[in-house]
Design goal:
CATH class of chain B: Alpha Beta
Helix content of chain A: 40-55%
Number of strands of chain B: 12
Strand order of the largest sheet of chain B: 4-1-5-6-10-9-11-12
Strand content of chain A: 15-25%
Structural class of chain A: alpha/beta
Distance between the termini of chain A: 52 Å
Shape of chain B: globular
Largest interface: A-B, 46 and 49 residues
Strand order of the largest sheet of chain A: 10-12-11-14-15-16
Number of domains of chain B: 1
CATH topology of chain B: Rossmann fold
CATH class of the largest domain in chain A: Alpha Beta
Mean pLDDT of chain A: 97
Largest sheet of chain B: 8 strands, mixed
Strand content of chain B: 15-25%
Number of domains of chain A: 2
Low-confidence stretches of chain A: none
CATH architecture of the largest domain in chain A: 3-Layer(aba) Sandwich
CATH architecture of chain B: 3-Layer(aba) Sandwich
Structural class of chain B: alpha/beta
Largest sheet of chain A: 6 strands, mixed
Oligomer: heterodimer
Helix content of chain B: 25-40%
Order of helices and strands of chain A: EHEHEHEHEHEHEEHEHEEHEEHEHEHE
Radius of gyration of chain B: 19 Å
Low-confidence stretches of chain B: none
CATH superfamily of chain B: Thiamin diphosphate (ThDP)-binding fold, Pyr/PP domains
Radius of gyration of chain A: 21 Å
Chain lengths: ~400, ~325
Amino acid sequence: MSQRTRMSGNEAVAHAIRQVNPDVMPAFPITPSTEIPQFVASMIANGEIDTEFIPVESEHSSMSAAMGASAAGARAITATSSCGLALMWEVLYVAASSRLPIVMAVVNRGLTGPLNINAEHSDSMGARDSGWIQIYAENNQEAYDNFLQAHRIAEHKDVHLPVMICQDGFITSHAVENITLWDDEPIRKFIGEYEPEHYLLKEDESMAVGPYAVSNYCMEAKKAQAEAMKNARQVILDVAKEFEAVTGQHYGFFEEYKLEDAEYAVVAIGSVCGTVKDAIDVLREKGVKAGLLKIRVFRPFPAEEIAGALKHCRAIAIMDRAESYSGCGGPLGAEVGAVLYRGKAAAETVNIMYGLSGRDVRVQDMEGVFDKLQKLAAGEVSFPEYFYLGLRE
Amino acid sequence: MGQRAFNFREIQERQERLAPGHRMCAGCGGSIAVRNVLKALHPGDKAVVGNATGCLEVSTYMYPYTAYKDSYIHSAFENAGATLSGVETAYHVLKKKGKISSEYKFITFGGDGGTYDIGLQSLSGAMERGHDLVYVCYDNGAYMNTGIQRSSATPQFADTTTTPSGRVSNGKPQARKDLAAVMAAHNIPYVAQTTFIGNMKDLYVKSERAIYTPGPAFLNIMAPCPRGWRYETDDIIEICRLGVETCYWPLFEVAEGRWILNYKPKKKLPLEDFLKKQGRFKHLFVSGNEYLIEEFQQEVDRRWEELLKRCEA
């Protein structure tokens, strides 16, 4: 049923692509996602898959070609990072509003300014309002498993929205870790064939994609898209359940690590969660009730569920790997903060900016965060609305 | 699936693939271009039509109405080439996998803004990769959809809203980009330049050749805009004729690298015959500005001579 091996996050996603065997993949190289199209190109060159690779001249064209292929009735995927995602920006919105179930592997890297190639969430966080479903991974296994579930979610008739499968640049994409790969046959059965209802190349009907819509119609189109995003909530859970039946792996909107009785909680996304878990283990040994809420699904945002999972906590640190330059925190801080407010949570909160441009975060850094949370809950200290972790003094 | 003899009546009796009732202006060259290019599809052949954002898009696919009989896709302003290359690639995969059996042709339309300027990279990429599609530029020589701003296709000295003629300005300072030559430099199987002449035979023959030549093809069609060029709508055909007779807009094609001149005027008319019909060049006819017309004439002559050399070689 499965094979225990070791590989990088990029290899893991490429392995998922091999199992999906998509129809079309346009892509343009950008560090650290470049390896994904390289692996795919090799698989095509060796006859392992029958995907058509389009070596486009930019990421804008990559997303445009993916849109064309998807509208034509093909299963279309691509991969990118950072500025590549930024160059796609315009077309991300068009693809989502055209309700095209494109799947994109995003290997998170900071947007330029200064130029840097390392892990940060400013790329995909910037695209959070583009209408794409966003699912984040802590490690290579999750990047692989999330990618395998993506098409089922995107193509579901109640959803029809594109999906980003995100993993942290280098930390996850390039680090080689243990992984369990699922056998081709059951996983391909799980993924299934793509059979769209309407598409450009449907022989007995023609269709038009990408209208100009005046104010009389445009708002309804946006509402329908918002409803599809709401529908995605149940579909994501249903697909995860089916995936669990095939693989034994459990997935939900988020993972709770020792959160059930936690007084002090961290909310975070991505690879840092492994470090947070290690810090929690150390603190639990010392009797500190520390816990983690690791967000997997950021779009749709599981607001009520997050509020419910954190309601008993005394102090919460919301960790952002992306500046929003609002002067009062990052995107996760703003959204989780709003959720806690609406849920009438009594917890003290602090928003922490960490790991920007790949800045390392160690277990002791996270122990320090939990120490701050304890002092905050005890009323011994107060903090500014948000602060930077591990900043050079 | 080769070329068929030009039978005007048979072609005109073919089903319109761009239905009437769209919202393009009376006397618009863009809609004439689209109608006639699509008429070159052989009856019964399927097509997917692409489109860059522009007048054509906002006037022919205004939700919930589409003017296209064929499947149609619009994504954005600068990506018509890339978008259709995705459609064309999907077609090959789905065919290979036995999911579809019909033959499809792929034709995308962009104005000069979406083609010469913001969409040039996407177009170049699509042509270089060798997708089996036709990119048609309906060149009206400015960004007409946003209100007549200059493009790199705008002829020199034209009065546009971003190159207005004024007390110290003679209109657009630069001469137009020769996009057909740029496309020919991609060494694609077929490039042609045409406009609305006579009974549209030149446009038809080139469209058919572009559509039925395997591999990428590029058509550049001078498609006057009555609003931007400021002429009486009835005059469009005469303006096109003068564009050709003055050698401002030569009719040529580049097939498999061979340059072919399709029409050589017996007596080349002076450029001012073409210019004086258009309000955008009105300032050139003010006394004392004769030198501007002379300068423009020299540039037209230079390019015409260069084209003749290319076609003789």
